[in-house]
Design a protein that fits this description.
The mean pLDDT is 96. It contains 11 helices and 8 strands. By secondary structure, it is α/β, with parallel strands linked by helices. The chain has one domain: Alpha-Beta Barrel (TIM Barrel), CATH 3.20.20. Strands 1-2-3-4-5-6-7-8 form an 8-stranded parallel β-barrel, surrounded by 7 helices. The termini are far apart.
Length: 215
């Protein structure tokens, strides 16, 4: 399973890249607002750090507006993936983008029927928001399992990108189910790395090393 970082923070992205942990980056307007830089400038800076898919989101909700914004984003760099909301006008745009060879990430997916329609439109990635599904009393990981099964049944090329990951268990379950990608905040990437037994073992080794006679 590929691991993307969900961030617009350059320091976080550099740190995750230095760890060799990430294969790509997802952003959204909320994350880019926190970065405090113009969208295009931020996306280009990210492309200089990570050589992989970089999702940049359109703000328009009408067909022509989505096409105009998406084409502009795609022209910034070959690694840019145009992030499109899962609405009727968005799916129309995804079909056009697909015909034009522009990669897309269909976002704000909360049901298997939505994911099926996105795949039929030719989406490169579908982003089900598992944490937000959990917040409403649903089971986000059950949604991932449904989508993976449906895509496998019909050999869709669309990749399942598990989003709104809140903790390591989401990440592990996504990998077990067969999600193609999980996009994860930097704090969760750090949580994936940590284990108390690792810390205890390292502390013990370092303490015992002090008892080794000097040569």
């Amino acid at each position: 399973m590929k691991l993307f970082i969900d961030s617009g923070d350059m320091d976080e992205i550099r740190e995750a890249q230095a760890m060799g942990a990430i294969d790509g980056v997802t952003t959204n307007p909320s994350l880019l607002a926190k970065a405090g830089r113009p969208t295009k400038e931020t996306l280009l800076a990210i492309c200089e750090i990570v050589d992989g898919p970089i999702s940049g989101e359109v703000l328009a909700t009408d067909f022509e507006g989505i096409l105009a914004e998406g084409r502009e984003l795609a022209a910034l760099h070959p690694n840019i993936v145009v992030k499109v909301p899962l609405i009727e006008e968005g799916l129309k745009a995804v079909k056009t983008f697909t015909d034009e060879g522009i990669k897309t990430n269909v976002t704000l997916c909360f049901s298997a029927p939505q994911a099926l329609l996105a795949a039929k439109a030719g989406a490169t990635y579908i982003s089900p928001f598992v944490g937000r599904v959990d917040d409403t009393g649903g089971d986000g990981m059950e949604l991932i399992e449904q989508i993976v099964s449906i895509y496998d049944n019909y050999d869709f090329d669309t990749q399942v990108l598990t989003a709104s990951v809140r903790h390591p268990t989401h990440f592990i379950q996504a990998a077990l189910i067969g999600s193609h990608v999980a996009t994860v905040p930097f704090k969760v990437i750090r949580q994936l790395l940590k284990h108390p037994l690792t810390d205890i073992g390292l502390a013990r080794f370092l303490e015992d090393a002090k008892k080794i006679p000097a040569s």
